[in-house]
């Protein structure tokens, strides 16, 4: 009989029983996201979704994949894991809706050093909450335990979402015209971008995540873990009310900042001119600047208070603001599309000074 130690999957860092318990804990939250088109339930080898082709004239499927980035490091540091799943959903569905697509379903991928069922369930419960906010079904996913690659408390998230839009209703720069109003929609915080810089500031300045800095009304950790606002249903409602004749394009403000992302929906020959004086720079961004981040870098790395913009026909601008505000999304007219007088000028430009 060999005296060699018995080798098991669990001893190698993969606990199948813990994975099964995590599925049990998350099942109820996942099932709440079901749409009528979902076929089958959690636990199959693939998620099934019955697209009602008769509902559409010429449907296009849209897809988006993203993650949460280093905001996860703060979640680990504070041992709070119930919000980053909302961030994950926001990053993919708000990219989908930028072209006018309705999010249909989402699948997630969780890689971790050790499956702690309660932690995985908290993460996926957040993903389910985000799917509910977006009207998307969570039709499946994968939890992978990589004990020999990641620390026990380490994890990373990714997701892919699929949506649908009519071919003649795709939004984008092709629809944008001179004179269009740029409607800004307030962000809920840093969203899920710029956190490598945020964390660097927190570390270098010795900021206490449990303390309430001047200008904020809650602990810094709470501010930094505020989930990304999900705009998908609000943007779809705006198109439903005004049509593609009224709403021409959306830009999701992520890495690259407000000007950089708005520029992605500006056609050649035009320029989006946005007036900083129409909103106040968030206190959390000012805090980053007080500890060494230059204004130009803030405006490239952070959303600076605007998480989504819409290019809207000018005659519909006031109605757009009213509809979004009524839906609980603070919105305002931040600028307009103008003829670009200088071919070398940027496609989107911020002017003026932020409101006090």
From TrEMBL:
Domain spans labelled PurM-like C-terminal: 177-341
Catalytic activity field: 2-formamido-N(1)-(5-O-phospho-beta-D-ribosyl)acetamidine + ATP = 5-amino-1-(5-phospho-beta-D-ribosyl)imidazole + ADP + phosphate + H(+)
Gene Ontology biological process terms from the UniProt entry: 'de novo' IMP biosynthetic process; adenine biosynthetic process
Enzyme superclass (EC): ligase
UniProt KW Cytoplasm keyword: yes
Pathway: Purine metabolism; IMP biosynthesis via de novo pathway; 5-amino-1-(5-phospho-D-ribosyl)imidazole from N(2)-formyl-N(1)-(5-phospho-D-ribosyl)glycinamide: step 2/2
SUPFAM superfamilies with a match to the protein in the record: PurM C-terminal domain-like, PurM N-terminal domain-like
Entry's localization field: Cytoplasm
Primary location recorded for the protein, binned into one broad class: cytoplasm
Gene Ontology cellular component list: cytosol
Family matches, as InterPro entries: PurM-like_C_dom, PurM-like_C_sf, PurM-like_N, PurM-like_N_sf, PurM_cligase
Keyword Ligase: yes
One Gene Ontology term of the molecular function aspect: phosphoribosylformylglycinamidine cyclo-ligase activity
Keyword tags: ATP-binding, Cytoplasm, Ligase, Nucleotide-binding, Purine biosynthesis
Protein family: Belongs to the AIR synthase family.
PANTHER family (alphabetical): TRIFUNCTIONAL PURINE BIOSYNTHETIC PROTEIN ADENOSINE-3 (PTHR10520:SF12), TRIFUNCTIONAL PURINE BIOSYNTHETIC PROTEIN ADENOSINE-3-RELATED (PTHR10520)
Protein name in UniProt: Phosphoribosylformylglycinamidine cyclo-ligase
Annotated organism of origin: Blastococcus saxobsidens
């Amino acid at each position: 009989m060999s005296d060699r130690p018995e080798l098991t999957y669990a001893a190698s860092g993969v606990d199948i029983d813990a994975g099964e318990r995590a599925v049990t804990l998350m099942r109820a939250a996942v099932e709440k996201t079901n749409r009528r088109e979902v076929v089958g339930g959690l636990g199959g080898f693939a998620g099934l979704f019955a697209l009602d082709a008769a509902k559409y004239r010429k449907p296009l499927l849209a897809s988006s994949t993203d993650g949460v980035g280093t905001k996860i490091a703060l979640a680990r540091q504070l041992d709070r894991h119930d919000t980053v799943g909302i961030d994950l959903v926001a990053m993919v569905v708000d990219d989908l809706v930028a072209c006018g697509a309705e999010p249909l379903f989402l699948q997630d991928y969780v890689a971790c050093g050790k499956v702690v069922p309660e932690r995985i369930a908290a993460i996926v419960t957040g993903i389910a909450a985000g799917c509910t906010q977006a009207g998307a079904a969570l039709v499946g996913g994968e939890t992978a335990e990589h004990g020999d690659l990641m620390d026990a408390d380490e994890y990373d998230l990714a997701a892919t979402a699929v949506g649908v839009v009519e071919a003649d209703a795709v939004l984008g720069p092709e629809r944008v015209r001179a004179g269009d109003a740029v409607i800004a929609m307030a962000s809920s915080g840093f969203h899920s971008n710029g956190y490598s810089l945020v964390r660097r500031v927190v570390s270098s300045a010795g900021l206490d995540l449990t303390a309430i800095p001047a200008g904020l009304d809650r602990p810094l950790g709470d501010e930094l873990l505020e989930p990304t606002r999900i705009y998908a249903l609000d943007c779809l409602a705006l198109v439903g009310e005004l049509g593609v004749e009224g709403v021409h394009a959306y830009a999701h403000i992520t890495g690259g900042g407000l000007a950089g992302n708005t520029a992605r929906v500006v056609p050649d020959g035009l320029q989006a001119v946005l007036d900083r004086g129409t909103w106040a720079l968030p206190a959390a961004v000012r805090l980053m600047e007080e500890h060494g981040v230059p204004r130009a870098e803030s405006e490239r790395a952070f959303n600076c208070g605007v998480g989504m913009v819409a290019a809207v026909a000018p005659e519909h601008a006031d109605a757009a603001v009213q509809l979004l505000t009524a839906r609980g999304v603070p919105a305002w007219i931040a600028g307009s599309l103008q003829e670009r007088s200088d071919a070398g000028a940027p496609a989107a430009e911020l002017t003026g000074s932020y409101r006090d």
